[in-house]
């Protein structure tokens, strides 16, 4: 069954407009708990109380303020809060198109898929245009876009992926550390022999990316535990064991590692 | 301006410390977030301007509920929950690990963009940064990333170790079953567009082509508008109120907030060329730390307590004494705390309680939090031992 779109927008590329639908690309598989009152198992709720009177404050008497200095607040009215919100609009503007390498992974917040909303031809034409030339992945580009959704301004990177358009919501510039300004660990030049062995070791341990090989085992254990408990089963939890290991010198370690890998491959 | 006595530092700390292993090579590192969160958050206040506090209450009894009366439950049926206690959660948690074991290296471009969750910088955490530099160099030369799983803050993560410009990053990845495919979503099968439409879009895209980003386009305009509004009103003394003086709950007041960038810079600078590699170092010697003067890094760790400077010095030197290296203590902040939780501020206690996922923490008083933390820490220390 097709997923429901989260949002609908009008993607604007210069003078061309393509209606699109936005879908979440992430499936939330986490185990979510509710906080319950132990006595009766009723889910607890939250409310705001005045610490001096310990009395709850009804929502219409609550003010909101920004703490400009310690203990000093600037009140912001409901009207002002609403004025601060971005104007609702369905437009998703392409600001510029740049090589994909410009933004490192630390910029990514959340992925979405875009799907066509009536103009399939326009959608797939864009997906085609944004796709990198065959066999030249390094020439891939992405479109920097801005849009408004649920009263918030977003920035994103739009890319072509397997014939479709994927949108990565991005962090704002102020949130990302400019890595170029960080000092790089420095020291004596690396020993060429060690470099060679390290490259060799990486080579031996190299392979394709197989994401299915990894699973969230904690989540699975937790899920199984809960099921067991729900079924009234007696659940035993063993205390996990800690492992310890001691490392030799760097050169010795590299050499031994390469030897180990060679032996493994032969076996 | 607050008194020096009450000065505390508040800022990001290493999220995790441990080693990266590949083969038998062991690289001690510390993990820091690679991003900071900028939020314009408003405090709720009463009509008299008193900062309000959040409270849990039971709708059935219409009464507030204290922390120790709250349990966490998983909904298995309509109104039916299975309770999972702190101890059970702790026992199910992956074994505490200080190691990122790199068993597999994959070409960098093979990682789908939809996998990336959160990035962390890694700083070398040892007298010698040679192994760190070697790994970074090798990864960059071979254009590969290392794949591993590791445990941080009680959770197990799939992580890619990436090198860029000589720095290593640990980027947590989503598990395969957390990522949807176009098929999962039900996107339509592609249609072949007409040449006309393709040309139209090629032209449009060409007009927008640029070789570089313009970071200004990625700034948070909303945040700036909000800050400008507040700034203007503050200067005009418009709608400004003072909260009652006893309010210690509202932030840690006067704390010198150290930005993440500064923390990273200091940590990386301290990891420069150690003394035994022939180039001079700025790193403070072991002797210096023993007289109680905290190293920059050590100072950042002490996000604790209204403790006066003399008290802090005492605990600082207890930390430094008997250790060969000034700032690298063997435990991360996630093991049993070296300093007594009783001396921590409410915020530090709360943060720690959050890491340990202690239920009902927002309802607990300082002593309750300290007790819960000590309980959680000692049980985990026993297990790790």
Q: Could you walk me through the main structural features you see in this protein, from its secondary elements to its overall organization?
A:
- The complex is a heterodimer of chains A (267) and B (385).
- Chain A is an alpha+beta fold and 267 residues long.
- Chain A contains five helices and twelve strands.
- In chain A, α3 (192-204) packs parallel to α5.
- The longest helix of chain A has 17 residues, at 250-266.
- Chain A is extended.
- Mean pLDDT of chain A is 88; it is low at 234-247.
- Chain B is an alpha+beta fold.
- Chain B has eleven helices and 16 strands.
- In chain B, strands 9-2-3-11-14-13-12-10 form an eight-stranded mixed beta sheet. A two-stranded parallel ribbon of chain B has the order 1-16.
- In chain B, β13 (155-164) and β14 form a beta hairpin.
- In chain B, α10 packs across α11.
- The longest helix of chain B has 19 residues, at 366-384.
- Chain B starts with 8 loop residues before the first strand and ends with a helix.
- The model of chain B is unreliable at 1-8, 247-255, 275-338 and 381-385 (pLDDT under 50).
- The chains are: A alpha+beta (267), B alpha+beta (385).
- Chains A and B meet through β2, β3, β4, β6 and β7 of A and β2, β4, β5, β7 and β8 of B.
- β3 (34-37) of chain A pairs antiparallel with β7 (70-77) of chain B.
String of helices and strands of chain B:
EEEEEEEEHEEEHEEEHHHEEHHHHHH
Q: What is the count of helical runs of chain B?
A: 11
Helix content of chain A: 10-25%
The oligomeric status of these chains comes to heterodimer
Determine the fraction of residues in helical runs of chain B and give it as a percent range. 25-40%
Radius of gyration computed on alpha carbons of chain B: 25 Å
Separate helix tally of chain A:
5
Counting helices, strands and paired strands, the structural category of chain A is alpha+beta
Number of strands of chain B: 16
Low-confidence stretches of chain A: 234-247
The neighbouring-strand order within the major sheet of chain B is 9-2-3-11-14-13-12-10
Biggest sheet descriptor of chain A: 7 strands, mixed, barrel
Instruction: Report mean pLDDT of chain A, rounded to a whole number.
Output: 88
Largest interface: A-B, 164 and 185 residues
Described by strand count, sense and barrel closure, the largest sheet of chain B is: 8 strands, mixed
Shape of chain A: extended
Shape annotation of chain B: globular
Distance between the termini of chain B: 45 Å
């Amino acid at each position: 069954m097709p997923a429901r779109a989260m949002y609908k927008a009008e993607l604007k590329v210069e003078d061309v407009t393509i209606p699109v639908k936005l879908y979440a690309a992430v499936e939330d598989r986490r185990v979510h708990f509710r906080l319950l009152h132990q006595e009766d198992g009723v889910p607890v709720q939250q409310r705001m109380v005045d610490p001096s009177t310990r009395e709850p404050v009804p929502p219409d008497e609550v003010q909101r303020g920004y703490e400009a200095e310690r203990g000093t607040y600037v009140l912001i009215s409901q009207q002002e809060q609403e004025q601060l919100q971005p104007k609702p609009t369905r437009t998703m503007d392409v600001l510029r198109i740049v090589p994909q390498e410009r933004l490192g992974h630390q910029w990514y917040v959340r992925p979405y898929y875009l799907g066509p909303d009536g103009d399939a031809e326009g959608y797939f034409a864009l997906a085609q245009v944004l796709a990198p030339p065959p066999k030249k992945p390094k020439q891939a580009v992405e479109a920097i876009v801005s849009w408004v959704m649920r009263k918030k301004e977003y920035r994103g990177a739009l890319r072509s992926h397997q014939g479709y358009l994927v949108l990565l919501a991005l962090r704002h510039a102020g949130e990302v550390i400019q890595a170029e300004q960080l000092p790089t660990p420095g020291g004596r030049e690396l020993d060429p022999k060690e470099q060679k062995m390290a490259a060799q070791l990486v080579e031996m341990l190299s392979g394709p990316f197989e994401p299915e090989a990894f699973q969230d085992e904690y989540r699975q254990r937790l899920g199984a535990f809960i099921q067991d408990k729900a079924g009234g089963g007696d659940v035993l939890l063993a205390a996990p064991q800690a492992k310890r290991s001691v490392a030799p010198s760097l050169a010795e370690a590299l050499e031994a590692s390469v030897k180990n890998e060679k032996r493994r491959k032969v076996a | 301006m607050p008194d020096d006595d009450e000065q505390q530092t508040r800022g990001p700390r290493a999220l995790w410390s441990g080693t990266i292993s590949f083969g038998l090579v062991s690289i001690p590192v510390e993990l820091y977030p690679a991003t900071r969160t900028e939020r314009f958050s408003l405090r709720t206040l009463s009509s008299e301007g008193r900062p309000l506090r959040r409270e849990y209450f039971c709708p059935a009894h219409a009464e507030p509920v204290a922390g120790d009366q709250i349990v966490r439950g998983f909904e298995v049926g309509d109104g039916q929950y299975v309770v999972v206690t702190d101890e059970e959660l702790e026992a199910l948690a992956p074994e505490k690990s200080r190691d990122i074991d790199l068993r597999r290296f994959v070409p960098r471009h093979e990682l789908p963009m939809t996998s990336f969750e959160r990035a962390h910088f890694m700083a070398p955490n040892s007298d010698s940064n040679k192994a760190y530099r070697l790994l970074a160099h090798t990864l960059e030369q071979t254009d590969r990333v290392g794949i591993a799983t590791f445990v941080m803050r009680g959770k197990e993560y799939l992580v890619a170790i990436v090198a860029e410009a000589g720095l290593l990053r640990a980027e947590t990845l989503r598990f395969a079953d957390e990522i949807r495919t176009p098929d999962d979503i039900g996107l339509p099968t592609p249609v072949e567009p007409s040449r006309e439409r393709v040309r139209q879009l090629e032209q449009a895209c060409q007009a927008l082509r640029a070789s570089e980003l313009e970071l200004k386009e990625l700034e948070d305009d909303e945040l700036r508008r909000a800050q400008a509004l507040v700034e203007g009103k503050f200067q005009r003394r418009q709608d400004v109120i003072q909260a009652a003086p006893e309010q210690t709950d509202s932030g840690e007041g006067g704390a010198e907030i150290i930005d993440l960038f500064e923390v990273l810079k200091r940590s990386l600078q301290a990891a420069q060329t150690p003394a035994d590699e022939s180039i001079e170092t700025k790193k403070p010697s072991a002797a210096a730390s023993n007289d109680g003067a905290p190293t920059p890094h050590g100072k950042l760790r002490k996000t604790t307590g209204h403790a006066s400077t003399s008290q802090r010095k005492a605990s600082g030197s207890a930390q430094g004494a008997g250790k060969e290296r000034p700032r690298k203590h063997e435990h991360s902040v996630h093991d049993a705390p070296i300093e007594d939780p009783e001396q921590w501020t409410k915020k530090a206690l709360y943060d720690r309680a959050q890491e340990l996922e202690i239920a009902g923490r927002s309802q607990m008083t300082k002593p309750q939090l300290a007790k819960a933390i000590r309980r959680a820490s000692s049980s985990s220390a026993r297990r790790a031992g």
